Amino acid sequence: MSILGVESVLFGVADVAEHTRFWTDFGLPLESASADEAVFRLASGSRVIVLRHGDARLPSPDPFPGDGLKETVWGVDTAENLQTIAASLAAEVPVTRDADGTVHAVCPDGQPLALRVWNKRAFHSEASPVNTPASYPRFNQHRIWRSKAVPKTINHVVFFSPDYVGSFEFYERHFGFRYVDHSKGSGIFARAGGTYEHHSIFWVNCDLPIAPDHFKFMHIAFGMDDIDEVMLGANIMERKGWKNESMNSSGGISRHRISSAIYYYCDMPGKAGEAEYHADTDYLDDNWVPRAWDFRFGSLLWSNNAPPIFRGDNIPWDMAFDADRASFEPFRKDRPGKRPVEGKLSELTEDDEHAL
Ligand SMILES: [Fe+2]
Description:
The structure is a single chain. The protein is of the alpha+beta class. It has one domain (about 5-120, about 150-355): 2,3-Dihydroxybiphenyl 1,2-Dioxygenase, domain 1, CATH 3.10.180.10. Helix content is about 15%, strand content about 30%. The protein has five helices and 19 strands. The strands form two sheets. The chain has an eleven-stranded mixed beta sheet with strand order 18-14-15-16-13-9-12-11-10-17-19. Strand 3 (about 35-40) and strand 4 form a beta hairpin. The protein is globular and about 60 Å long. The two termini are about 30 Å apart. The mean pLDDT is about 95. The structure holds fe (ii) ion. Fe (ii) ion binds near residues 156 and 276. Fe (ii) ion binds next to strand 9 and strand 13.
């Protein structure tokens, strides 16, 4: 079975017009808009669909209060594989089907999801070659001049989970997602089998002090051509008045060590979560060997103003290959209730959130 990535996401919001303005400024191509909904379609064919609270197309019951990403629709390569996945799911959780064949279910962690056959589109994406003092592949050429930032793909979605190990194992069991990296105590990165992007989904541990104690949407990341396009998007959003208040202390653009990605976040209206510009991430296949990391070592390669817990020379260089998943054991949910998080993780603050 092969899931190709996120086919679409459904947002439930109070103010459709304000969210439409946000995504338009963010650079998503608008396909259609009315008083009750807006549909944006990316070059890959992925869609961002904005609906008003109470719309019949949104999952019921609502997975969490307020604005946010309420349902993730995964794109499957063939009808046969969709059937296989639906049968697997139905053995564990209730499954419903729409007339068009779309399958819906709710994960044990509370995440509503859907699956449908997806004809993912080929698209053009190009980065400027990078010169160094001894290697200059951009010889006699200037960098690409861009006038707008246009996200091409939905790279990943991120949710808080009350059982992040269990959330990954559910996705592995039914959807064939690959274990990629584990930020110990913080969360697991997993890749859909039909894509090479480092991760398609990340579950953040609800036991962290920064997290709610229930399933909730955190952020969605969009693939950009290169760091220039990320920075151009950041400049445009700032000029339009969109901020990321929670990023004030970390100064905006940064690069993760896990996944190598450049990133910059913008706050969505209505405290719905964050939209991430994302570039130069790792691309990988099944030859990748999963790794387990100390969260402080794995989180940042650099930041122009790292949050306090990620500063200093005392951060241990801590990465181990983890094909046997030994790192999962201390974080398994073997008892109900909120497990206290020990060590440095318990000192995380909201300002540290996006460095994870
Ligand atoms: Fe992200």
